[in-house]
Design a protein that fits this description.
Strand order of the largest sheet: 1-2-5-6-8-7
Number of helices: 4
Structural class: alpha+beta
Helix content: 25-40%
Strand content: 15-25%
Radius of gyration: 15 Å
């Protein structure tokens, strides 16, 4: 079974974020950092070289594969800010309708910039996602 490549590291989150060239993206990332820190009540950690993650939980698939992953996190990608909202978006459909300009993937929320979304709704979405994971998994 292949080993998961993205793991928690000891790299500096602040150094990573301060190295973001685009000022708006950098500022948005620090705002998201604060939002996720409040939601999880944990300190951020780098996961791999480009993901900022908060907390962790142990997952196990029916196949027997298991591992550790962060409860919520984000990454400033070239095209979008990617927010990792664990679990399904199904319970959050009403929030997504009120969020503003975004796209979704399996466990990802893609936004161009915070100004494109209702930040209050985004905070609620992150808080709800964190609650779902903490309730359903062995969160740490």
């Amino acid at each position: 079974m292949a080993e998961l490549k993205t793991k928690k590291t000891e790299a500096s989150v602040e150094d990573f974020l301060n190295a973001i060239q685009d000022e708006q993206t950098r500022n948005d990332c620090f705002d998201i950092l604060k939002m996720m820190k409040q939601a999880t009540k944990t300190e951020p950690k780098m996961w791999g070289s480009s993901i900022v993650g908060f907390g962790s939980y142990r997952y196990k698939y029916a196949s027997g594969r298991e591992g550790d992953w962060f409860i919520t996190g984000f990454s400033p990608r070239k095209q979008n800010l990617t927010l990792y909202v664990m679990g399904s978006f199904n319970p959050h459909g009403q929030l997504l309708k009120k969020l503003g300009r975004h796209k979704t993937g399996v466990g990802c929320l893609y936004i161009k910039k915070l100004a494109d979304v209702d930040v209050k709704v985004l905070k609620e979405l992150v808080n709800e996602s964190v609650k779902v994971i903490k309730k359903s998994a062995s969160a740490r």
